[in-house]
Amino acid sequence: MKYTFYPGCASEGTAISYHHSTIAVAxxxxxxxxxxxxxxxxxxxxxxxVIGQFAADVLASRNLxxxxxxxxxxxxxxxxxxxxxxxxxxxxxxxxQFKAKANDALSKDGLNYNGGLNVRLLLDVxxxxxxxxxxxxxxxxxxxxxKVAGYVGCQTVRALREFDNWENPTFLDNIIDSLxxxxxxxxxxxxxxxxxxxxxSPEVTVSALYPILKSAYDAGADLIVTPxxxxxxxxxxxxxxxxxxxxxxxxIPILFFTQLMALAFGLxxxxxxxxxxxxxxxxxxxxxxx
Length: 290
What we know:
The chain has helices spanning 16-29, 47-51, 53-70, 80-92, 96-106, 122-130, 132-137, 171-178, 197-200, 202-218, 229-237, 239-246, 257-264, and strands at 2-6, 32-35, 75-77, 119-121, 147-150, 182-183, 223-226, 254-256. Helix 1 links the parallel strand 1 and strand 2 (32-35).
């Protein structure tokens, strides 16, 4: 299976572990992920407030124009925010007036986008196209005995509502189960972590993270996995602050779901990119010998 891969800027920074583990897992599954050459940041959720919505849309659509120029495969993003931004601007190209205006702007960079691509989230591709049976067939180290909270977050499913059940998503839990681990049912799997608000109002982020961590802890989770770089960063980096503010002692590792897949596929800790974790997963993973 061939895909056009949009890494997104987090893949070169806070979510570098997501990027490395994705590439490693893709090789095991036989996925060809061709990176968009000269891609740029999707703009995330803050750019429109700085440069205006149309300029932000053109910034995001430049990636789609580059992808279309180079091939016709679906564009796959790992990041929930990138998926939401690229997916929404892709839909706007169905409006001929917007399309003409956007392409006029893109032409200054020698580009044009016809709007013929699909934007996909890696989580969706894993379940809908690779399939749970194929994933399970690649498991050489079943994660038996490991209890995992699949934290979907607020954007992953609900931003575009094009896959899974946006009120009660199961895709992430199904992947966890296919790896031999036990997906735990916890009440806050869709709650917002506040995203980039952590930069301007960290106290608000801490107050939002506490019930998420508490919910996973109370459900007996050994660790939390997510498909969202912002969710992973906030839960990992601010967990110490949560403990200080609320007098708790949480020590819950926060991984990307691809890191869990890498471990189940028998890849070493380096290929699973575990060294980038702030909250060490070593103790939680002792039961599976990782």
